[in-house]
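Usage example:
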Amino acid sequence: MGLLIQLSWSFALLSILAVGGGTAVLPEMQSILQHQFGIGHTQFVHMYSIGQLSPGPNMLMVLIIGYQIAGVAGATAVLFSFFLPSSILCLYVGRLWVRLGESPWRRAVQNALEPISIGLMGSGVYAVAKGSIVSPLTAILALISLGIILRTQINPVIVIVLSGVIGAGVALYL
Amino acid sequence: MIATTQKNIPRLRDLLIQFLLIGAISFGGGIIAYERLLLVDKRKWLTADEFMAYLAISQTMPGLNSVNLAVLTGDFLRGTIGSVVAVAGLILPGSVFVLGIGILYSTHTNHPMANVILAGIAAAATGLLTAITVRIGSGHWRQLKSVLIITATFLLMSVGKLSLPWVLLIMAPMALYLYRPSKS
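Running the assembly step on the lines above writes:
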């Protein structure tokens, strides 16, 4: 029970701090999971990565983390604590905003938060790369994926699956 | 003020089914685009202006933009229960999917083959995250103010190893000051 409360509290905090979207909290999530729940860097990156294969909002991978830590109860606790606080806040502030009308400050807040969340996403890239770029092969796969996703309209899920297949193929035949 | 013209009021069941569909087919992202397609083009539950206004609020508030947008549009269409239904529909299919892979993952973590596949998947996911960051940042790289804030935030978080609340406490007031509305 104590574990579930600790898990819920951590993800509720991350929920409220997720400025500019879920990926902004990746580095903080990684460090909380490492220090409080004993989830290693590589394991975190693996769970994040397979979560990218799923449909729906891109941070549903938090369920894999909850499941890994405390089974189905953990996944449920994480689901509610990660999605409920920010949603309730958005519901009430959103109503207030619509009633007050468009203020120049809403635009200012959005403009100010955008570069902060890009900086945090940069830290997210760094945190994920530290756990995923572990060999020349993974570096090459990451760069090729980046190039393909930036330059083409191909669905990223296909790129991710292919990269997994290539990784396995190289390990089997080389 | 968001103009309240005559609006199409959807049935809750229809709202749920439509959001479940988005939640089930949005492999590889792009949910906001699907939401727009449904709400504005397909069902005309919202006007394009209403959609843009709610999207702006979604992006300003903490939390995932796609989920916040479901909260706000669900509330606009059917009140609190509409929000609950829209969000539930959006995250339910992916949750089942992701829980399935989570169970597979935790039962096969130590399999040698699983690890090489995961290494390839993680490498591509890093490429994807980098691409998303580059794209979202595209308008910012040439603005001095933005580059300063982006760099300072990155350094505090990744090099200074400050915790996220501290980073926000330091950076948010500075950024708000730099981007304060002009008096003109």
